[in-house]
Each structure stands twice: as structure tokens, then as C-alpha cells.
Amino acid sequence: MAIIIFLDETYYDRRIPMEKQPARQSRFLRMTGVEQYRSRHLRNSPVQAIMRPVKVILKPTVLLSTVYFLFTFAWAVGINTTLSIFIGPLYGFGPKQIATIYMRRNDGTLDPEARLIAIYISTPFMLAGLVLVGFCLQNGYHYMLTAVAWGLYVFGIMITTVALNAYNLEAYPEASGEVAAWINFARTIGGFIVSYFQVRWAAAMGPQRSFGVQAGVTAAVFFLVVLLSVFGQRIRAWSGPLHFKTA
Fold first, then answer.
1. Helix, strand, or coil (residue 146)
2. What are phi and psi of 172, to 5 degrees?
3. Which of the listed ranges 10-24, 42-56, 170-184 does the model predict with the highest average pLDDT?
4. Nearest to residue 121, comparing CAs of 161, 76, 159?
5. 120 contact partners, CB below 8 Å, separation of at least 6
6. In terms of Cα–Cα distance, which of 148, 158, 152 is closest to 119?
7. Contact between residue 128 and residue 95 where contact means Cβ atoms under 8 Å apart
8. CA–CA distance, 177 with 244 (Å, rounded to integer)
9. What is the rounded distance in angstroms from the CA atom of residue 115 to the CA atom of residue 102?
10. Rounded distance between C-alpha atoms, residue 143 and residue 145, angstroms
11. Cα separation of 166 and 114, whole Å?
12. Could you tell me if residue 107 is left (phi over 0), alpha (psi between -120 and 50 degrees) or otherwise beta?
């Protein structure tokens, strides 16, 4: 909704020379669709728009690529589903270990804040990854070391993503869709914004310093997790339930 209100549509027919593109008038007319209607002869009709993805998937190269990705990426989800069933009986892993430690420290109770413990483990990996990436790019280290550094950060952010979603979904299970939407919004908007200045930033400061600042920001916002770990239960009690009309 914020994008619709504050930003303009970036799509246009690039086959039309710039001097022949429809001239922009008022933002109100664009928001209400009046300008788009006036220049409808330059755009796809609703039927043409619907047929675009159909025509694309009918191209053999796209279809074969899609089928290949379907039968390779599916196992990533399959492994996650299978591990949750087999790892517990085989190796004794599971939520019991974390829950037992947490419950010992919290008078035998298990709150959603227990999910945040995993972020204490993942944060050092993210910090090390960011700092090491900066050093690698600044000093021209071997590309395999750069790959290892990037892998450290990705490993940490994957754990953080799971823990953060689990915490909020357990805190507000009746709002699972809304919670997931806001977490994904943060992920999307963060990646969208940083892409505008990341390259210029690294070029101006150097990769070592710019990635060091990123590691510093990551370390600073980690204290929000500490805040939630310590006061999260009281904050949730103070803010009260959601009082949705329907579940």
C-alpha cells in the first residue's frame, strides 16, 4: 500500500521512444487511473496482461527450466520436513533441549521468548561473515574465502529468520498471516532500500569499512533481541491481545 501511495509505477513500454512516451500530468490522475486510461492504447489490455505469463510458460526453454527447478528445489522443503521427523528419534535433537534449559531458568515455564535463544547463536556468525567479506573484498583474498565468509552470514541469517518467525507466530498464533506479512515486509523493504546505496557506499568508504559498519548495525540491533528476551513477556502483557473479530 505504501508503494502504491508514494511511488510511481516503473513499468513502461521500452519499445516506444522516450519522446513519444505519454507525458505525466498530475499524481492524482495517475493514482485514480485516469492517465492510464487515456493512454490505454499503449498498454496491454486485461486479456493481453493475463495471457503474458501463459505465453511465457509455453516457451519450451522456460517450461523446461521451471520443471527442472520444481524437481530440484522441492527437496529443500522435503529435507526440512523429513528432518523434523527423523532427527529427534535418531539423535535426540529437538525443542526439548532448548525448552529444558529455558524452563530451568524461568520457573518451569516455556514462553515464546525461548525461541529467541537461537539468535544468540546465529548473531556471531552474521557478524563474522560481514566483517570477513569486507576484508576479503578490500584486500583481494582468495574467492573461496569470500565464499566462506558469505556462507557464514547466510547461515546466521537463516537461523535468525526461523527464530524470529517462530517467536512472533507463537506470541500471536491467531495472526499468523499478518505476522508473516510484516516479517516479510521488513525483509523485502530492507533489501530494496540497501540496493540503492550499497555499491556507492562501498566505493566511497571501501568494502572493509562499509561492511564493518554493517556488522556494527547488526550488533546494535541485536540489543532489540536482548530487550525482547528480558522484557518480551511483560511487553506482550502490557500491549494486550489483538482482539480480532475472527480467528
1. helix
2. -135, 70
3. 170-184
4. 159
5. 225
6. 158
7. no
8. 13
9. 10
10. 5
11. 10
12. left
Neighbours of 103 (CB within 10 A): 15
Residue-wise pLDDT tens digits, 63-102: 887 787 777 666 766 666 666 666 666 766 655 565 666 6
Residue 247 in this model has a pLDDT that exceeds 60:
no
Answer whether 141's CB lies under 8 Å from 104's CB. no
pLDDT digits (tens, 9 = 90+) for 107-165: 666 778 888 888 999 999 999 999 999 999 889 889 899 999 999 999 999 889 888 88
Nearest to 98 by CA among 80, 77, 125, 119: 119
> C-alpha grid cell for residue 244?
480480532
Phi and psi, residue 137, nearest 5°: -70, -30
Instruction: Supply 75's cell numbers.
Output: 527437496
Q: Which three cell numbers stand for residue 241?
A: 491481545
Q: Which residue has the cell 565464499?
A: 147
